[in-house]
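Annex B. Sample input.
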Amino acid sequence: MPPTQLRQVERLAKKENRTLSELVREALRRYQQKQESPVSGELLAALKAVQADARRAGLDKLPQRAINAEVAAHRREQRQKTTKESLR
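Annex B, continued. Sample output.
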């Protein structure tokens, strides 16, 4: 590890009252989770942005029944489009 980076790690460990070993283990654990995760950071950021927009618009308060009705309506529309296209 480069000396500059080692000093940063030592300072961080001291600041958080942890050992270097603990800090490295956690860093490795987080790295492995990130590598194994099928969800990217960009996707999570986009999802959070959509959720925030929905909250601002008051759409986060829809009851489950209304959500299910919207999903069913969308699926019906998609099936109708697919059926019309296959008839052509």
